[in-house]
Amino acid sequence: MKIGYKLIAEAHAPQGIVDQAVRAEEAGFDFVEIRDHFHPWFDSQGHSGFVWSILAAAAMRTTLPNPLTMSNPRSCASTLVGHLG
């Protein structure tokens, strides 16, 4: 069995998420995963860092396997394309 750690992108700034990935590895977790949200669920959360950059930064600071990213293609894909285009 492998046990992972869930990173919450909407609740923390990008640097804090990367730090959490490092701490998860240090604590012995087998992997981390993160959801891809274009915008925070609530204004009080206040964050929605670009998840792909966060994953790259976490990969540079850990030896964990490739982090798993989940997204909702119906709501995210078109906004992401518009955001990048």
List the helices and strands and how they pair.
Blueprint: E1 4-7, H1 14-26, E2 31-35, H2 51-61, E3 68-70, H3 73-84
Parallel strand pairs: 1-2, 2-3
Notable traits:
alpha/beta; 85 residues; globular; 42% helix; 3 strands; 3 helices; 3-stranded parallel beta sheet
Topology order in helix (H) and strand (E) letters: EHEHEH
Poorly predicted runs are none
Radius of gyration: 13 Å
**What proportion of the residues form beta strands (DSSP E)?**
5-15%
Taking strands numbered 1, 2, ... along the chain, how are they ordered across the largest sheet?
A: 1-2-3
In one word, what is the shape? Answer: globular
Fraction of residues in helix? 40-55%
- What's the domain count? 1
- Please describe the biggest sheet, giving its number of strands, its sense, and whether it closes into a barrel: 3 strands, parallel
Structure summary, number of beta strands = 3
The chain-level structural class is alpha/beta
- pLDDT averaged residue by residue: 77
Total helices: the number is: 3
Termini separation: 41 Å
